[in-house]
Queue: 2 jobs
Job 1
Amino acid sequence: MPKEQQMSVSVWRGGATGAFQSFDVKMEDNQTVLDVVAWIQQYADPTLSYRYACRVGMCGSCAMMVNGVPRWTCRTHVNKVLKDGHMEIGPLRNLPVIKDLATDMDPFFDKWVAAEGLHHPTQTRDDPIEAIDPTNAARVEINAGIECINCSVCYAACDTVAGNPDYLGPAALQRAWSVYNDSKDANKQAILDAVSGVGGCHNCHSQGSCAVHCPNELNPMNAIAGLKRETARNFFKRRT
Amino acid sequence: MTLKLYMAQRITALIMAPLVLMHIAVMIYAIQGGLSAAEILGRTQGSILWFLFYGTFVVAVSIHAAIGLRTVLSEWAGLRGMGLNAAAWGILALLLILGMQAVYGVTAI
């Protein structure tokens, strides 16, 4: 019988201050990082806190730092990230840690609202449904943005967020860009104003970590460039 | 960085780009015949054109650099609010004084 293979896993324990705790976990075929975390909680230490829901890459709940890189843990295979039989799992960067691997997502979602990524209706529920041309350029621009699962991986990856806590971040700005391009949105000026303040889109240095790490391969940097372009255009328009 | 600062930095960059190219082109052209410092000063001193050329460049570069360093101070040194703005205005004033002093030095009669 072949010898059971083990991996050593360092897991963050504590809140803002704490330390990594090491666990030996049995290696399995087709094992995800989330499986490893679940195994530790079920068989090694039931006090370990972490967050997950769907386990199939749709809900955006289980993002964590794996070897210092933000990842959706339910769709990250262990053999992709294991280095010399070891890996390190920590809570998402740039967010307050509640306990162990669970972060407080409030700042992330508050910024979605602050970026005015809200629907401003042009019609009421009594009006007929407006026909949208799927090949329209603005609609095509939205296609990528609406695949966002709100996992906060881009927010954790962003060095500008790390250096400037006011910065709205890639996900919120991408949402604002999607709503801005929506022909059914009635208040585009509110969006441009919301992304032009102290924490607005102009803080982005186009380093592109958001696009590199997005698990759905979206490109928030592109959306942010769109917002920069539109705000700059609008800057002159409003003065004439 | 707000939209106003972003636009001020981009517009000053647009102003600087052709001025830098002209500066380099004139330098290459001027030294072809082996001009001395005295001969160069003979052409720049009393010239309103050169005063405006380099004066515009100094103003543009001072604004551009002050905004850029403001961002660095904010993100790397954690400066915020009044302190950050005071530092940016200080950098702007310093660059303007140093730059305009140099422009005055080569264009005043």
Job 2
Amino acid sequence: MTARDLYLLSPEIALAGVAILVVILDLLVRSKRVVGAVAFLGLAVPIALTVVLWTSIDSETAVFGTLAVDKFALFFKILVLAIVGVLILGSADYVARFQRYQGEFYALVLFSATGMMLLAATTELISIYISLELTALPLAALAAFLRDERSTEAGIKFLLLSAMSSALLLYGMVLVYGFTGSTQLQEIAGAVAQGDMPFGSYALLAGVTLMVVGFGFKIAMVPFQMWVPDVYEGAPTPITTYLSVASKAAGFAVLLRIFYFALPAVSGDWGTLFAVLSALSMTVGNLVAIAQNNIKRMLAYSTIAHAGYILVGVAAFAARSPGPDGVALGPSGVLFYLAAYAATNLAAFFAIMAIASRTGSEQIDDFAGIARRAPWVAAVLAFAMLSLIGIPPTAGFMGKLYLFNAAVRGDLVWLAVVGVISSVVSAYYYLRVVRVLYLGAAPSEEAIPSSWPVRLALALTGGSILAIGLLPGRLLELGEAAVRIFSLTPQ
Amino acid sequence: MLTATVFLPLAGALVIALLLRRPRAIRGFAIGVTVADLALAAVAFTAYDPQKGGLQLVERFNWISSLNVQYFLGLDGLNAPLVLLTGLVGMCAALASWRIEVRVREYFAWLLVLQTAVMGVFTGLDFVLFFIFWELELVPMYFLISIWGSGRKEYSAMKFLVFTLAGSAFMLVGILVLYFSAGTFDMTVLATKDLTNVVIPVQMVFFFFFLAFAIKLPTWPLHSWLPDAHTDAPTAGSVMLAGVLIKMGGYGLIRVCVAIFPGVSREYAWLIVALGVISIIYGAIVTLRQSDLKRLVAFSSISHMGLVLLGIGSVGAVAANISPVGLNGAAMQMFTHGTITGLLFLVVGLVYEKAHTRYIPDLGGLATRMPFVASVFVLAGLASLGLPSLSGFVSEALVFLGAFFVWGWPTAISVFGIVLTAGYILWMVQRVFFGPALARYEHIGDATLVEKLPLVVMVIAIVVVGIYPAILTDVFSAGINPIVERLRVLGP
């Protein structure tokens, strides 16, 4: 470990530092608002460091080649940090109602975020595994945070299933290591490209498939989605939000890194596998969501469907933009969509928190007439629903446009057709929320107040949905710059 | 210029949503915005020089460079009259909303957003931009029907939305396939490219688009959303739907299906004609059976939109014989149907507002109570059944003329649809307005000044186009002749 390594890892170190500071401060200070404020303001340090790295570094490895500091990793780091920042703002009211353990809440969120940031950067199987655990363990504690029956169930379920998926993942990694002789992604890529493996590539594929299963749990794709609705419903809403955007983004980061970096030589095999799983996720997620009455459960199935949309980008390996230095459209679509989806889902969940804090119910029918009681919150929620359907001028539309474009270019027109049809199906249940908000009769006319951090978070996320929907150019360029690393991969 | 025409209503909607509070002020302001937008549309229409032809008033710049998406608005002969129509119908819809009392602010905001979306569909010439406006139109219409509508309004609004979304989903894939094969979203460039080398069969791409536009038009058997949506929408909603929204389908058929896929549309002209003839006859027969005034007018739209398909089907002729007459007729039919049916819905709305029923057997003898409304209705009805010197005649004659030499028997059968039209229109007029005056309608009066205004505007449009159709046909020809040229070059 050198001084250079410290510099390259400075965002993660700073973030972990903030988390530790929050824990210590929590012991000393009586006012818990201060703790939240420190957690929020402290994020400025890792964000600033990440931006500095983005501008100064093209692609480097750190800590004996186990971590890569490249634009791909930095993109995800900024995304995760931004999500955590907005999340702390948007859940201010929710967390303020906890009797105890507010400090621990923030600290666990920050530790988990550290794991996600590392996850995006790892280029070695064992480090990947360790970062995954660092991400998941705090989340399990957070899911059980309310300590009522459902929340505890959510925590236990999350813990057990992530343990199981980690085991499968580990087994897959062991097989891949056994057949290629390395845990370094770069060297695995070399060994696979040479192709002289014991038992041929089928043995390797067994390992790859197990890894797909392991990641399938993390990113909530069909058929490994059964934990999602229960955990999403039971967990505290901020944690549900966090799971659905940040944890998912980190999962896709490492998925892309492994498959595009280490296994491009067998892309034909896993490309088809992901295409089928993507179609399944979109179809199952959207169809089952129709039957849901609890809005968190509905969004849980929606997140399964969206995992399917994002997988379109993973599956479209062959998609390259025209021109000599063609960008890998699939991965850049994944990055763009993850950012768009993060803005959208954050907005939706913040609005739900703001409304449910007063009405006390998360049943969709109890959102009736909210448009009259909280016009701005309802407008943001409705707008987020349109973005989830993919109706312009929203971020969700641009994301789908880009992903389906990748599908068409990657010779997966059928997958694009499945995608657009399932988007139409999804319109039915997303619009149910809009309909209830605007057409339902409110049981009372009492206005629903929300504090300024929540309003700020709603404005930021709602504004981002519109901004990405109207002027996606800058974000697309960032995403395309981030996936340049895949163009350099040995084919 | 075009940007202002497209976005003025949206700006007005924002002002209404954020600044205005009093219902009176909102109504006045919204009407003012639509009048100003009509003026802009009229200026754009007159600024278009059909002698010069081609694209005019172009505004374009790069919008999303990594996807090669442009912000590209422009007028050619095909869309210039439709922009004018949108301004006209939009103003009449706003005027007809004078009596809206519930959630006034939201209502007018949505109505204006709708107008921006439709204007954008007609002027946007980049596929992504076109698609964005195409989808943007759904949201305001959904709210207009489901909040201010009547009957099974939520069901109808959802049905409208899901049908259109289903069509546009396929269109999106079609757009992306075209982008992949030609590297551009520019509709004008695509219309000059040879698209034989596509990743999937070019026929399939054609039908992706055809499905979207056929649903919107709508044609049999994809029409079932229309009677529900038109019937349950508020008056202004029906006027916008019948007046301009379904024209987006016809416009798309000509702009995309015929202009970008000339070969395939020739190959499948028989199908287009078959669907057209079925729509004409089926629509007319079903219309005869309606007892709800609004539903009756709604079903008649299916029949009249069949004429658009018949006109488009005339491209199926032997290459040397392809004439612009049929396509011109189809385009004209969109304009005239927009004014005529818009007017019919306005009058039906007035009848419903005053008599509180649309059930035809309950009505009767209204001509003595509301002579002005009755005479306008009769005029609109006559225009609808194609009386010479009114605008409906011009477009129907052109369609039949264009189609007859290519599709003799199908056209002959379609002409029979006109007879049926005369049947249901005259029968309805007789049952609603004539006959003995009923005692229960003694209290109702004629249209007020505000109510008369949109009627007069529409009547003027119908009569002027009926007497001097060249003001439109010259412009339409400027847009359609290049398409026909290309069809001819393509060979047999």
